[in-house]
Amino acid sequence: MKILVLNAGSSTQKCAVFDFNAASDEVISPIWEGRIEWSQAFASVTTRSKTHQSPEERIPVGPTNDHIGVTRRMLEGIWTGPGAGVSSAREIDLVGHRIVHGGPYLRETVVVSPKTKHLIESAAPFAPLHNQMELEGVNLCEEIFSHAQQVAVFDTSFHRTMPQFATLYPGPYEWAKKGIFRYGFHGINHEYCAKRAASMLHRDLSSPKLVTCHLGNGCSLAAIADGKSVDTTMGFTPLDGLMMGTRSGAIDPAILIYLAQRCDLSPEQIDSVLNYESGLLGISGHSSDMREIVRQMKEGHPRSRLAFDMFIHILCKGIAAMAAAINGMDVLVFTAGIGENSPDVREAACNRLSFLGVKIDLEKNISPRGDNDLSAADSSVRILKIRAQEDWAIARECSNLRQESTRTVQ
């Protein structure tokens, strides 16, 4: 069974094809994968199979931002060209779509139906950087792979176990009836990391208390106990919580009132500022990429130093809060682009958290990519670096759904 996964982020579009003929809970490598990195002027496209790596292709996107055209072009590479992974489009049996926000009604993996698409679209205002683009991907794949079953896998599903006192906001109680509460995001990867951490430590998933740090262009933390999400930093939308690449994270809500009343900013302008002009980019003034922030910081750029220090300060406050939510912390996990690839961030964060018994081994911290235990011998908290495997986790969800009775939203 061949499963295509579409995983759209706020700045990337990833695709991968997995062959699930041999059912297993072990991570398997895709037989084909593609990646698009979006910028204002270009889409940088790369694809690779087990036998071929394509050179980077820079496609102008211009003011119309033709995401669909570029994505279609990449998908056609699955069965055409020297790097093809299959012989024809009809070899794809299932298409799994990562959907960031399921809203109040879509709480588990489902087969896509017209009702499903309507509910995904209705949740788009909650995740403006994601849901609409992901729905466009669903529509495109329904056209290209009309024979294949489309499956929606939601980033919010894992957090549905959070207790009510962690999900409600301290506004009027009636807000919850309107769907205004903490949903949480990055759940696909938080759940995978919890299972992978338990496997790495040879422990049952129900025993360790974990804080998982998904740090990429979007950033969130999760407090996990008994294998379930107890609390998380993102909330009603993926804008809440930590400082991110271009997103502000949590701020005083009165700032929004001030911007509207005193600075004459429209809701659309405020939305743009908070989602696209804030975070690392807003503070540094030049980049949302942590690699560039660190490089400039080491060259003496003061605003890059400020952006880095703010990121670490907010991150450590969040980790301590997550530990408090589960009455302690046995395992600290770093994952996703920054979490996996920035030794500077991991070292700075762990040094600030020494009061919780966190102590990182500096030599292990600069270890190559992959899953590693970075803990010092005398650390009372195990520190793990785990590679994000969202694409495989989505494919596994699709495979499991095919084996169960079909779930649809009628």
Describe the structure.
This protein is α/β, with parallel strands linked by helices and 410 residues long. The protein has two domains: 2-154, ATPase, nucleotide binding domain (Nucleotidyltransferase, domain 5, 2-Layer Sandwich); 202-385, 2-Layer Sandwich (Nucleotidyltransferase, domain 5). Helix content is 35%, strand content 19%. The protein is built from 14 helices and 14 strands. An eight-stranded mixed beta sheet has the order 5-4-3-2-1-6-8-7, with helices on both faces. The longest helix has 24 residues, at 302-325. It is globular, with a radius of gyration of 21 Å. The model has no long low-confidence stretch (mean pLDDT 90).
Write the layout of secondary structure elements.
Blueprint: E1 2-8, E2 12-19, E3 32-38, E4 42-49, E5 57-60, H1 67-76, E6 94-99, E7 110-111, H2 114-122, H3 131-144, E8 149-154, H4 164-167, H5 187-200, E9 210-215, E10 219-225, E11 228-232, H6 254-261, H7 267-276, H8 279-284, H9 290-298, H10 302-325, E12 331-335, H11 336-341, H12 343-352, H13 362-365, E13 372-373, E14 382-385, H14 390-403
Parallel strand pairs: 1-6, 6-8, 9-12, 12-14
Antiparallel strand pairs: 1-2, 2-3, 3-4, 4-5, 7-8, 9-10, 10-11, 13-14
Helix pairs in contact: 1-3, 9-10, 10-12
Average pLDDT: 90
Overall geometry comes to globular
How many strand elements? 14
Strand content: 15-25%
Protein traits:
410 residues, alpha/beta, Nucleotidyltransferase, domain 5, 2 domains, 8-stranded mixed sheet, 35% helix, globular
